[in-house]
Write a structure and sequence with these properties.
By secondary structure, this protein is an alpha/beta fold. The chain is built from six helices and five strands, in the order H-E-H-E-H-E-H-E-E-H-H. 61% of the residues lie in helices and 13% in strands. Strand 2, helix 3 and strand 3 form a beta-alpha-beta unit. The longest helix has 76 residues.
Length: 297
């Protein structure tokens, strides 16, 4: 490669490196805000989880609320893919799609029909590319989701369950662990009897058994459960949206840092090639001068 071409390529790579570094800093700033929102929400979400579980266990009869009734058979399963609106975040979006589509294939093999929902443009476009029709799509808020966005999705999913359009609802999202680590989570949201909210997480509610005996319900547990269920669905989805947002910023920050590092290595390699090309040109010029001097002599 000619020295001129190498210089042009070095300049192009340096410009790309400036962009990736800027994107890394933006993602890092957004990640800090997302982490703060998650830390603020988790205690409230855990309290809703605990109260709903306690009320369900204390209720003598599950209320006749349609959202609490298990369907006789599971024939149609709602699958919600929580992805991002943008790419350039490594495997953030693709791993959700792989997990969701794998679950859809398992449901189909079991004779059940998947019903697709997607949050984020990447999820929508990928499912559309695969010719899969969407029962619900939600975009434009993945960088900073609001509670109203979770409520909108929750209302659609609860309506679909109550109306018999789906017999079960599952969600797929990236759970945030650290800027370098995100894990794909697959949770059952509805019906309540099969939802993960009814399971005690290790280390959670360690004093709950002692505390439960002190609880007196006013009004009765059935009425309280009637009020808690919509809140449980909304807060569960809001937590998933916030976890996904933090995971996306962390994944993008890591991806842009890796891109910047790779650009730096490429610049070093191209600079070395340019120096060698320059040395070859100088050597050639010296040889031409020596040859000319010998010819004159």
């Amino acid at each position: 490669m000619a020295q001129k071409d190498l210089k042009q390529r070095i300049g192009s790579v340096k410009n790309i490196q400036k962009i990736t570094r800027a994107m890394e800093m933006v993602a890092a700033a957004r990640l800090r805000r997302a982490e703060q929102r998650i830390e603020s929400l988790r205690p409230y979400a855990a309290a809703i989880r605990r109260m709903t579980r306690q009320a369900a266990e204390a209720a003598e009869n599950i209320p006749s609320l349609p959202i609490l009734q298990e369907h006789e058979s599971i024939e149609r399963v709602g699958l919600l893919f929580v992805t991002g609106d943008r790419g350039l975040a490594g495997a953030f979006n693709s791993q959700i799609l792989r997990a969701g589509l794998r679950a859809a294939a398992e449901h189909e093999a079991g004779g059940r029909t998947p019903v697709y929902y997607a949050s984020g443009r990447r999820g929508q476009s990928s499912l559309a590319f695969r010719k899969l029709s969407l029962a619900g799509g939600y975009v434009g808020f993945t960088d900073r989701p609001a509670y109203a966005n979770a409520r909108e999705i929750a209302e659609d999913l609860m309506s679909a369950y109550v109306d018999g359009q789906v017999d079960q609802v599952e969600i797929f999202y990236n759970g945030y662990i650290s800027p370098l680590t995100q894990e794909v989570r697959h949770e059952t949201l509805l019906p309540l009897q099969q939802a993960s909210i009814m399971e005690t997480t290790e280390g959670e509610d360690s004093d709950e058994d002692d505390f439960r005996g002190l609880v007196e319900y006013e009004p009765d547990p059935e009425a309280i459960l009637h009020r808690l269920i919509p809140d449980y669905v909304e807060i569960s989805l809001f937590r998933a949206l916030l976890e996904s947002t933090a995971s996306e910023h962390g994944a993008r920050m890591t991806a842009m840092r890796n891109a910047s590092d790779n650009a730096g290595e490429l610049i070093e390699t191209l600079t070395l090639q340019a120096n060698r090309a320059r040395q070859a040109e100088i050597t050639q010029e010296i040889m031409e001068v020596v040859a000319g001097a010998e010819a004159l002599g």
